[in-house]
C-alpha cells in the first residue's frame, strides 16, 4: 500500500470515529428527549382520563397509572425502533452475505456501500470485505497476467521447435541446414529449461516455507569465483573486466547470493558489446556492504527503469528474445536481496550502459530483528 493511500485511510478512519462520537452523543440526547416526551405524554394522558371520568384516585395510584402508561408508550416506541433497526440490520446482513457469496464464486468486483448510520462491528466487517475484494481483485489480475506471460514465453519456443522439427522432415535438406535447424531446436529447448528453472526458483523464494541457510563467508571471494566462472562468456567478447573489491565477511545464504551475482554479471555481459568494459566494485558503509556492477553496454531508456525488476518485464522484447532472456532473472535478484534485508536499484542511460547496485547488511539477522522481521534461520 502506498504512503498516500495509507494517509487517506488514516484520515478516513479518524473522520469515521469523529462522526461516530457525534452520532452517539446525538443519539443519547434524542433518547433523553424521547423519555422526557414519553413521561410528559403519559402525564397528560392520565390527566385527560381523570378529567373525563371524574375518578378520585390517590397520589400513589396516580403515579402508578402514569408509570404504567409511560411503560406502554416506551414499549411501543422501542418496538417501532427495533423493527426499524432489525430491517436495517437484516438488509446489511443480506448485502454482506451476497457479497461473500459472489466473492466465493470468483467475482471480485464487489463493493458494499458504507452507510453513515451503520455502527458497531458491521462497519468494520463491511470495510474488511471491501478491502478483501480489492486485494483479491488485484491478485486475480496478477495471476491472469502471470499466466498470460508464462503462456507467451512457453508458446514462442514451442512454435519454433515445432516449425524446425517439421522442416527437418524434408529430405532435400542439406547437412548444413539440418545441423543449423537442430542447433536452433537445442537453443529453444535450453530456453524452455531456463524458464522452467527460473519459475521454480521464484516460486520457492516466494514460498512461506523457504528457509535461508545462513553462514559466514568472504563476499569478495564469492564474487571473484562467479567472475572466473563466467570468463568464457566475457572472454569470448573481449570484454575488459575490472574488479575493485574490498575484503568483506558477510552472514548470508551463500548459494542464494551466488545466484544474485551470477544473474547480474551474466546480464551485464549479455548486453555489453564486443571489446566493451565492465567494472565490479565493492566497498563498506558502516555495517553494510555495497556492490556495484557496471557496464558500457546498450543501456535502457529512463521510462523502463521502474519496471526492470518485475516478472517477465523486458525493455525490448525482441532484443531479449534474441539473447535468450525470459524476464525472470532480475525478479529473482530482487527477491533474494530483499530476503537478506537489502536493496537493489539500477541506473542506466540508453546507449551508455547500466549500473546495478546491491546494498546488503553484513548481518541480515540483526537487521531483521531491528526491523521487526522474522529471524533468519542459520
Protein described:
Helix content is 63%, strand content 13%. It has 378 residues and is α+β, with helices and mostly antiparallel strands. Strands 2-4-5-7-6 form a 5-stranded mixed beta sheet, with helices on one face. A two-stranded antiparallel ribbon has the order 1-3. Strand 4 and strand 5 (288-295) form a beta hairpin. Residues 317-323 and 369-375 have low confidence and may be disordered. It has helices spanning 3-53, 59-104, 120-168, 175-206, 219-229, 231-236, 254-271, 317-323, 329-339, 364-371, and strands at residues 214-218, 240-245, 249-253, 277-285, 288-295, 343-349, 353-361. The chain starts with a helix and ends in a 7-residue tail after the last helix.
Features:
Heat Shock Protein 90; alpha+beta; 378 residues
Low-confidence stretches: 317-323, 369-375
CATH topology of the domain at 213-371: Heat Shock Protein 90
Fraction in beta strands = 5-15%
Give me the Rg, rounded.
Answer: 36 Å
Secondary-structure element string: HHHHEHHEEHEEHHEEH
Q: What is the helical fraction, as a range of percent?
A: 55-70%
**CATH second-level architecture of the domain at 213-371:** 2-Layer Sandwich
Q: Please, what is the average pLDDT?
A: 79
User: Based on helices, strands and strand pairing, what is the structural class?
Assistant: alpha+beta
| N-to-C CA distance | 31 Å
CATH superfamily of the domain at 213-371: Histidine kinase-like ATPase, C-terminal domain
Instruction: Provide the CATH top-level class of the domain at 213-371.
Output: Alpha Beta
Shape: elongated
Major sheet: 5 strands, mixed
Amino acid at each position: 500500500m502506498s504512503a498516500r493511500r495509507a494517509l487517506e485511510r488514516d484520515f478516513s478512519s479518524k473522520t469515521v470515529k469523529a462522526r461516530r462520537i457525534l452520532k452517539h452523543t446525538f443519539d443519547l440526547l434524542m433518547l433523553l428527549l424521547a423519555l422526557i416526551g414519553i413521561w410528559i405524554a403519559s402525564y397528560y394522558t392520565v390527566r385527560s382520563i381523570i378529567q373525563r371520568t371524574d375518578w378520585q384516585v390517590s397520589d400513589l395510584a396516580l403515579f402508578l397509572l402514569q408509570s404504567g402508561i409511560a411503560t406502554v408508550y416506551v414499549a411501543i416506541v422501542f418496538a417501532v425502533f427495533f423493527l426499524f433497526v432489525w430491517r436495517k440490520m437484516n438488509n446489511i446482513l443480506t448485502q454482506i452475505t451476497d457479497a461473500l457469496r459472489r466473492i466465493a464464486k470468483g467475482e471480485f468486483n464487489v463493493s458494499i456501500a458504507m452507510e453513515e448510520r451503520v455502527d458497531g462491528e458491521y462497519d468494520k466487517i463491511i470495510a474488511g470485505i471491501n478491502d478483501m475484494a480489492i486485494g483479491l481483485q488485484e491478485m486475480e489480475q496478477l495471476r491472469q497476467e502471470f499466466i498470460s506471460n508464462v503462456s507467451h514465453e512457453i508458446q514462442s519456443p514451442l512454435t519454433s521447435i515445432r516449425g524446425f522439427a517439421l522442416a527437418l522432415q524434408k529430405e532435400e535438406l542439406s547437412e548444413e541446414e539440418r545441423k543449423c535447424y537442430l542447433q536452433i531446436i537445442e537453443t529453444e529447448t535450453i530456453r524452455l529449461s531456463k524458464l522452467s528453472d527460473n519459475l521454480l526458483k521464484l516460486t520457492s523464494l516466494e514460498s512461506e516455507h523457504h528457509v535461508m541457510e545462513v553462514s559466514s563467508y568472504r563476499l569478495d571471494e564469492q564474487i571473484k569465483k562467479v567472475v572466473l566462472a563466467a570468463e568464457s562468456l566475457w572472454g569470448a567478447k573481449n570484454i575488459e573486466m575490472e574488479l575493485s573489491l574490498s575484503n568483506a565477511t558477510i552472514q548470508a545464504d551463500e548459494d542464494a547470493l551466488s545466484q544474485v551475482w551470477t544473474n547480474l554479471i551474466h546480464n551485464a555481459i549479455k548486453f555489453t558489446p564486443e571489446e566493451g568494459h565492465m567494472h565490479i566494485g565493492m566497498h563498506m558503509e558502516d555495517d553494510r556492504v555495497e556492490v556495484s556492477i557496471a557496464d558500457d553496454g546498450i543501456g535502457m531508456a529512463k521510462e523502463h527503469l521502474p519496471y526492470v525488476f518485475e516478472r517477465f518485464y523486458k525493455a525490448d522484447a525482441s532484443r531479449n528474445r534474441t539473447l535468450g532472456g525470459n524476464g525472470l532473472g532480475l525478479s529473482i535478484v530482487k527477491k533474494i536481496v530483499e530476503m537478506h534485508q537489502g536493496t537493489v536499484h539500477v541506473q542506466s542511460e540508453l546507449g551508455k550502459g547500466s549500473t546495478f547496485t546491491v546494498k546488503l547488511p553484513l548481518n541480515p539477522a540483526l537487521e531483521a530483528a531491528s526491523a521487526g522481521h522474522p529471524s533468519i534461520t542459520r
